[in-house]
Amino acid sequence: MDLKHILNEVAERIKKSEEFKQLDKEEQQRFEQMVNPDLLNLISGGDVPAVDYSAPTNGKALQLKVSLKGAKPPIWRRLLVSDTLTLHQLHIVIQTAMGWTNFHLYDFQYGDVYFEEMEEEVEQSSSNFSKIHESKEALIGNVLVKEGQKLEYTYDFSNNWEHTILLEKIEDKEAAEPICLKGRRATPPEAVGGVHNYMHALKLLDDPAAQGEKVEFYRDLLQGQDSGHFDLEETNEELRKSLDSKRFSL
């Protein structure tokens, strides 16, 4: 007898017990969900059921908070998008809302599963790529399904601009086009070399006594930029433009 059968037997004994029968319906249903066959299979070391990330979703509105990791004070955008967006389309929305240039590669990560633009020659059957999925096919509503879930998003693997995407709310209504609801602070210039360099640059430029080549480089790079600035109206105007572009429909 294997572990899966043992777990099944234990679950059946619990369901037949007097203690279980005294539980209210909600608690009984919760237990049924806990001991579903897929979960028992996973616990016992079986294969994890494949997730179809491209399956149709309901078209509900998802409220997401996208935060740039390591930024102090925080840099973030609150977005409202449809759960029918592909992760590639979400990438375009984030690029636009944050103010990035969409010049570099990216990926999304959920646990040990990755989503990115796949090269045609990559064979999905290869064990090295079994947990990598095409971002142009995976829908956000099949990745984030519960409020409070988080998805990691990295842009530019050289400078590693890492973001956390938090599903704050699932609204029981259909979403129109993606919009930005709120945001804080300007996004760093990409040439600064990563979030830690940006934090260091702001600190140096805030010191009247600081001098040297690096200070001059940062001063030229950040000239005219207000690090505390965020324009909601301008951000949504740029989002509307991005929706009309060919790259959003790819």
Automatic annotation (TrEMBL):
Under Pfam families, the record lists: PRiA4_ORF3 (PF07929)
Gene3D superfamilies the record matches:
MM3350-like
Q: Which residues form the Plasmid pRiA4b Orf3-like domain?
A: 61-235
Q: What residue stretch is flagged as signal peptide? A: none
* PANTHER family from the UniProt entry: LEXA REPRESSOR-RELATED (PTHR41878), TNPR PROTEIN (PTHR41878:SF1)
Name by which UniProt lists this protein: Plasmid pRiA4b ORF-3 family protein
